[in-house]
Amino acid sequence: MPVSRVIFSLSVALFSLSLVAPSAAFAQKKNKATPVDLNQIFETQLTIQLKQKSKKGKGSATKEVAVNVACAPAGKNGEVIAGKRGAKVKKGKLKGFYSWKTYDQLLKKAKLQLRKKGSAKNKSNVARLKAILEVANEGCANSIPGSNSPEDPDVTPLVLNAYTGPFGTREAALLYRRFAFGATAAELTRAVSIGLEATVDELLDWDQAGHDSLMADYQDWKCDQNLKIYAGDNHRDCNLQNPNDFSLRGMQYGWMDIFARSTNPAHMKFLTVLHSDFAAGQIGALNNGNQDKRWFAAHHFEELLLGSAQDWDYRRFLRDQSVGDPNGLAVMDPLAACFNLDGCTSFGTVGQNGLTRSNANENYAREFWELSSLGVAFPNGTPTYGVLDIICGADRFAGSGYVNRQFEVGLSENGAPIIANVSYPVRVGANTIPGSCTVFAGTPYEAVVSSNQDLFIATLNHPMTAYNVARKLLKNYMAENPAHATIERLARLIREDNYNLRRVMKIMMMAEQNFLPHGQRSVVLKSAFDLIFSWVRPLQIPFHSAPVFEAVAACGQELGEPGNRSAGKIFGWDVRALNGETNSIPCRNEITDLLEYLDDVESFYRSEERNGPNYSKLYEVLFSDKPFELRADVHLVDKVTALLGYELNTAQRQFLIQDYLNKRPELCDNQNEVNQYQCTLGTYFSVNESFSESPFGNYNNFVWKIGDLVMALVDMPEFRER
Length: 722
Description:
Layout: H1 3-30, E1 34-37, E2 42-53, E3 60-73, E4 80-88, E5 97-102, H2 103-117, H3 120-141, H4 169-179, H5 185-194, H6 196-204, H7 208-224, H8 228-231, H9 248-261, H10 265-278, H11 294-311, H12 314-322, H13 334-340, E6 346-348, E7 358-359, H14 362-372, H15 387-397, E8 400-411, E9 417-427, E10 430-431, E11 437-439, E12 447-449, H16 452-461, H17 463-477, H18 484-496, H19 502-509, H20 528-539, H21 545-554, H22 575-578, H23 581-596, H24 615-623, H25 632-644, H26 650-661, E13 663-667, H27 671-677, E14 684-688, H28 699-713
Parallel strand pairs: 6-8, 7-10
Antiparallel strand pairs: 1-5, 2-3, 3-4, 4-5, 8-9, 11-12, 13-14
Helix pairs in contact: 1-2, 2-3, 5-6, 7-9, 9-21, 10-11, 11-12, 11-13, 12-16, 14-15, 17-18, 20-21, 21-23, 23-28, 25-26
C-alpha cells in the first residue's frame, strides 16, 4: 500500500475516533446509575447465542449459554428492563436501594474500553453483552412475577399486529361486537365497503350531529322515566331552572336509549368501561335524603364520563376528578370524588364567616390512586404508594366542599315562588398542613407537591398510571390477563400521547387477534352492558328502556352502581364469576324475555309512524333484504348470526333450521295424535311446521320462532365471547 494512502487512512481513523470517543464518554457520564428499590428487583434466566472458535482452530461455532439477568422498573418511563445491580446506595435516605445500570449502558462502557485498550477479554465482553441485550429486555418484560411467569397458564400473549386479511361481514361484525356493542345491518354494509382502517377511524371519530339528535329524547327520559309518545297523559315537563328537577331512574333509562341507538357506539362502550373500571359514582346514594345533590349525578355522567369518552382523553378524566373542570363548576367530580369517596369532606355553608373549612380525608387520595390511576401495586407486587403518600395526598386534596343554597326557580300555579335546595361543589379553606409535602419519596418518581394540581401532575408522571390504564383497556377489550410486554407497549404510547387513548384504541381495534377463528380469540364477556346491547343494537329490537334496564340489572350491573353490583365491587368485573352459570343463565333468560315485550303493542311500543303490531319493525330489520328465491328460515339464521358475529358450522346451521324454526310444540290431547305421532296423552311433543316470516299471518309463530332461535344461540360458546 502506498505511504500516502496509509497516512490518509490513519488520518480518517483518528478523526473518526475524535468524534466517537468523546460522544461515548459523554454518554457514560450522562448514563449514571439509577437507584432501584431492592424489592422491585427480580431475576430471570435467559439463553443467549455466543460465537466461539472451533476446537480445531478453524472458523467459529455458536454455543447456547444460560445467563441470569436482573430485572427492575428502571427504564426512562418506568418500564421493566434488564440490567445489573451494583452496590447499595449510601447517599441520602435511600436505604434498601441499589445502584443500577442497564445492559445498554454496560455495553456502551464495554465498547469504550475495547476502543481504548483492545484485548481479547474486552472483545469477548462486548460480544457477550450484545448477545444478552438482544434478548434481555424482552425476557424481563415477559417474566414479571405473577404476571407472565411460565407457571401462570392464564397469561395471554398479544402481538397486536395489524390485521391484513379479508375484511367482510364476519370481520366487521366481530369488530363492532368487541368494541362497540355490535353493529346494525347498515353499519356492517358500510364497514365492508370502506374497509377495516376507515371503519376504525369512523368508530373513533365523534359524530356530534348524531349525538345531538338523541339528546331531546334523553332529556325526555331523564325528566320522568318515559318518552312523551309512550307516556301520554303521564308525561310531565321538568323545571329547567332547577338543575335537580329530574328523575335519577329516568336518567338511567335515557342512557340505555343512547347505548342502543347512538351513532357513537365505541365511545358509549368506552364510557361504560370508564364507569365500571376507573370510577366510583353511585347514583343510589343520592336517593336517600340527598335530593339537593342530584345534579352531582348528572355532572358525573354528562360531563366527566361523556366528555372523556368523546375525546378519548384520559388526562381529562383524571383532571376533572382531582383538580376540577375548566369551567370551575366543580372542584372535583362531585359524585365520585366529593360525595362517594369523601373528597369533599365538609358540608360548606354560606354565612357571615364565609364557608366552613374542609378537613383532610385519606379515603379519596387512596381511591384516586388505587382505582383511577396507579393501581395497587407494581407487577412484581411492590405497592405503588404508602402511608406517607396517602397523608400527603389527603392534604393536597383537602379544601373541597359544597355549598347548600336556596333560590327561586319559578312560580307555582297559584303564583307562589318555588324554592329549590341545590348543592354546588366549591373550593373552601382547608384545615391541613400548609406548604408542601413529598409523594413517592425515594423512588425515581419522587415529587414535591403543594396543591392538588401538583399531585395530579405527579400522578400522571408516575409510570404505573399509564401502565394501569393500558392493563385495564386490554382486559376489557382484548384479554382477561394480558402479558406484561403487551401492557408496557401500550403504556409507552399512552405516555407519548399525553394520555389521549385514540392511538392505542386504534391499535387494539386493528389487531389480528380480533379476527381469529372461534376458540382462538381470547376475550370473554366483560359486562352486562356488553351482553344485552350486543343483541338489542344489531337486531334493533324495539324496546322501552325500563325492561332493558331491568335486564341489565338482572345480570348484575346497573348504571350508577360501580362495577359488579351484586358483588359490591368497584374494581371492574370478576370475569370468571360473571361467565359462570350463576350469572350467565339469568342473562340468557333476560335476552329471551326482552322479546316477550313485543306482545305489548300499544303501551310500550306505540309509534306515531305505525299503528300496527310493533313486531313489524323487527320484521323489517330481519327480512327487508331477503332475496325472493331464498327460503325464510335459511335467510333468518344467516341474517341473525351475521349481525351478532356468531360463526356456525354446517351441522349447527342445519340443526337451527330444521329443529328450531320448522318445528312447534303440540299438546298430545287426543287418540288420533297418539296414533299418528306415537305421543303420550297429556305431554307435549314436537311436530313439523314450516316457518313463516310474515308478522301479519301467524303472529305467535313468528315471535315464538325467533324466541326459539335466540334461546338456541345464547347457549352457544360465542354468547360469552367477544
